[in-house]
Amino acid sequence: MKKKIIDRRYFYPCVYLFFILLSFLPPISTRSYDPQEIPDVIFQVLQNAITPNLHWWGWFFHLGTVITILIIAFELRGKETWFSIFFGFNYLVIACVQATARTPDYGSVVLTGTLLMNILLGFMWISVIGSHGLKVSFRAHPRWKWYLLPFALLVFWSPLKINGSRVIADFSLLKLLSSPDYGLSYCFMTPVLLYFLILFHPAVPKFALRVTAFNGILYGIYNLTYWASLDTIWLGVLHIPLLLFSILALVLSRRMD
What we know:
Order of helices and strands: HEHHHEEHHHEEHHHHHH
Helix content: 55-70%
Low-confidence stretches: none
Distance between the termini: 24 Å
Strand content: 5-15%
């Protein structure tokens, strides 16, 4: 009889602990900073990561999401494969874009934990290809799941504009298909993915659901700091779907045991 490498009861706690430790990895920068400045380091990276020459990715990921919805709606062959590749690729792009930036006060910065987390999520979702645990369809879902759609639409829209240190609302209709903050930001793309997973539950891979949801809770809690300042409170509002969907997805995943 083969000996278990790790008791089943401790598998997920160990996975969660791994991602918690990953999230605490300090940013690497070309200029030194005090540990108390880490929130400002992160905010400056987020301010400067999405440069104007990257804005076309906003169109790419918005249209890619619309295409994903149409592929699922028309029940086209390979819809699960497309779903896994699209969101897995999106995480890898976010790892390349959102985790690095040249900042005014700290020089070139790499958010180590964010970089590694997105890379792992990207390869995890790509590896879901061919999994019998994933079945995507818009048919016969409880009505309450559709009531969550406005929250997913909010982050898909990403109606914001950064003005210096202030984050203000910008409900330009053009942003509904062009905002780069959706496709290039972990905190705005992940709730859309989680909404799909909540909708398709229980026909989703349990491990991928739990890992995605747990990281969403982790970063959703970290981003509650945006509520502490009037300058960033709108950013705090836009992070509500991440925390809400992550908690709900984790609760639903418990029903799959």
